[in-house]
Amino acid sequence: MLMLPSNTKVYLATVGIDMRKSFDGLSEIVQNIIEQSPFSGHLFVFSNKGRNKIKILYWDRNGFCIWYKRFEKGRYILPALTGQSIELSLSDLHCLLEGIDLKNIHRLPTLHYKKVA
Asked: Around 55, how many Cα atoms within 13 Å sit in the side-chain half-sphere?
């Protein structure tokens, strides 16, 4: 996959899209439906209605890039979808692209340590 800064956000559009859309069509969805700037450097993830194809749109310094993956067998299993888009973590995106069911992931609790003076 890509080497990304840890502060990169991932937005998943909740509606299936026409996979014929390219840079301009996906950028329009980012602005009008996800309500984010496509020039932010964040990742914008789109799936088709059949949930076997994913496109990721992102801005890379001087132009848009599209990353595209198609499952030959099976479907992407997406988390509960409410609203126009949801925000995923980078680790959720990696799981999604590997075909891991995001609905049934059980994570250990995050520990927060206090700094002792």
From this structure: 21
